[in-house]
């Protein structure tokens, strides 16, 4: 392992710990009739995962001197939204998975109805956090954060991508490279794009800087999805903490199934180079973001 990789892993581990501490506050333990719902929300969101999206928020915010407190609230909100998507994605009506982040999925640990409600509540809690004055004193900034996250996660974003994925699987469609790219951009990429851009929104950055981070997030998200597909094809469940080989079992079209392992890896490498080129104007302060781009295609989980 290179020194750069070690530095990045340490930084990501510190960030993940901070994000979990923030989530512990933003998702308090409740007593009374709602206690089971809060327990399921915390089970889904607190602990585990790479916190890639939250890390992007923190590093993007650092480029503009944004307070760590504000950045952690936004990072926590995005991780809640991401956790909700995983809870629902694992349900029997979707991917029907039993394992997530090395432990039973929420509908297995609790039940299906509780899992649905926990996902719903995590989603709404994410928007509540973004809308609160404690996240940013400027209501225009808070409104922009809410708008961008809603766009990234709705019918023209993550949910729309999941719908396209389901339609392709149910219909047995053989998608071409452009169609797969669009599906993955919506399902995975849009939330990663916003995570990269959010720090610039918090910092009221110039349009050019915000656009640069958005471009970085777009290419990073595309590379991340190819890496995820490569892991599904080549890694073990012990390495990833979730069931692998699902895409091949379902006959799902991915860039890996379309291009083959070697060409898919080359495509991911090209996207990583593009992602890093967007950071040319940020200097050494963006080194961790550059390392992250390399990390997403080298990881084994």
From TrEMBL:
* Ubl conjugation as UniProt keyword: no
PROSITE patterns listed in its UniProt record? POLYPRENYL_SYNTHASE_1, POLYPRENYL_SYNTHASE_2
Q: Give an example GO cellular component term for this record.
A: cytoplasm
Keywords (alphabetical) are: Isoprene biosynthesis, Magnesium, Metal-binding, Transferase
Give the GO molecular function terms: metal ion binding; prenyltransferase activity
Name the GO terms of the biological process aspect: terpenoid biosynthetic process
Q: Which domain of life is it from?
A: Bacteria
State the needed cofactors, names only: Mg(2+)
Q: Which SUPFAM superfamilies match?
A: Terpenoid synthases (SSF48576)
UniProt cross-references to InterPro entries, sorted A to Z: Isoprenoid_synthase_dom_sf, Polyprenyl_synt, Polyprenyl_synt_CS, Prenyl_diphosphate_synthase
Matching PANTHER family: FARNESYL DIPHOSPHATE SYNTHASE (PTHR43281:SF1)
Which family is it part of?
Answer: Belongs to the FPP/GGPP synthase family.
Please name the NCBIfam families in this protein's record.
Answer: FPPsyn (NF045485)
Q: What is this protein called?
A: Farnesyl-diphosphate synthase
């Amino acid at each position: 392992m290179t020194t750069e990789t070690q530095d990045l892993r340490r930084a990501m581990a510190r960030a993940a710990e901070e994000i979990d501490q923030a989530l512990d506050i933003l998702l308090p333990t409740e007593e009374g009739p709602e206690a089971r719902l809060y327990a399921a929300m915390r089970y889904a969101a607190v602990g585990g995962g790479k916190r890639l999206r939250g890390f992007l928020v923190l590093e993007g915010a650092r480029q503009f001197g944004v307070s760590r407190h504000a950045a952690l609230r936004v990072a926590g909100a995005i991780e809640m939204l991401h956790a909700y998507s995983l809870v629902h994605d694992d349900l029997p009506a979707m991917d029907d998975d039993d394992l997530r982040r090395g432990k039973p999925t929420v509908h297995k640990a609790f039940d299906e109805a509780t899992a649905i409600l926990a996902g719903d509540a995590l989603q709404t809690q994410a928007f509540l956090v973004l809308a609160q004055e404690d996240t940013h004193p400027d209501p225009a900034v808070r409104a922009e954060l809410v708008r961008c996250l809603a766009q990234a996660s709705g019918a023209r974003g993550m949910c729309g991508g999941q719908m396209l994925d389901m339609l392709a699987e149910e219909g047995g469609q053989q998608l071409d490279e452009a169609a797969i790219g669009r599906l993955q951009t919506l399902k995975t990429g849009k939330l990663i794009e916003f995570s990269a851009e959010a720090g610039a929104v918090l910092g009221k950055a110039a349009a050019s800087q915000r656009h640069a981070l958005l471009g970085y997030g777009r290419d990073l998200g595309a590379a991340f999805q190819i890496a995820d597909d490569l892991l599904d094809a080549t890694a073990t469940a012990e390495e990833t903490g979730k069931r692998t080989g699902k895409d091949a079992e379902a006959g799902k079209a991915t860039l890996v199934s379309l291009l083959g392992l070697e060409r898919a890896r080359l495509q991911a490498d090209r996207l990583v180079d593009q992602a890093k080129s967007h950071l040319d104007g940020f200097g050494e302060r963006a080194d961790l973001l550059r390392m992250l781009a390399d990390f997403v295609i080298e990881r084994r989980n």
